[in-house]
Specification:
about 130 residues, alpha+beta, endopeptidase fold (from Nostoc punctiforme), six-stranded antiparallel β-sheet
């Protein structure tokens, strides 16, 4: 991957505080940040919850990808349970909203994230769930 998510789509979000369930514009949780980036890319996604089972349900609107591109989601897990999502902004880097630091850009292929990656996903941008 050599592409980068344009700074104009996300730079103003850096440093915004984390708040559980927040969908912006003053604060975000991890899902709210993902939805905001998708909106700025010109897509509308259905609203869904923030943690655990809700993230699994959200995957019905995503397809796994093995060569992530900027704008793709990165699903992170703890104890084999999905619990956090970030947005790929360039190779090895993600944007995410975390309770301890708000919206930040961090390396996903370094500690503490590299061993928590469940997968990379691309949203189906026509709002249609993937049939099972």
């Amino acid at each position: 991957m050599t592409k980068t998510l344009p700074y104009s789509l996300w730079f103003d979000l850096l440093g915004k505080p984390y708040r559980a369930g927040a969908r912006g514009p003053d604060a975000y949780d991890c899902v709210g940040l993902m939805l905001e980036i998708e909106r700025r890319l010109g897509y509308t996604m259905p609203l869904w919850g923030s943690h655990g089972r809700n993230l699994e349900e959200a995957l019905t609107y995503w397809e796994p990808v093995y060569d992530p591109e900027p704008g793709d989601g990165i699903l992170l897990e703890s104890d084999d349970t999905p619990w956090h999502i970030g947005v790929v902004c360039s190779e090895g880097w993600m944007l995410h909203a975390h309770a301890s630091c708000g919206v930040v850009k961090e390396r996903y292929n370094a500690w503490p994230w590299q061993n928590r990656i469940r997968g990379f996903y691309r949203a189906r941008r026509n709002d249609q769930p993937i049939s099972s």
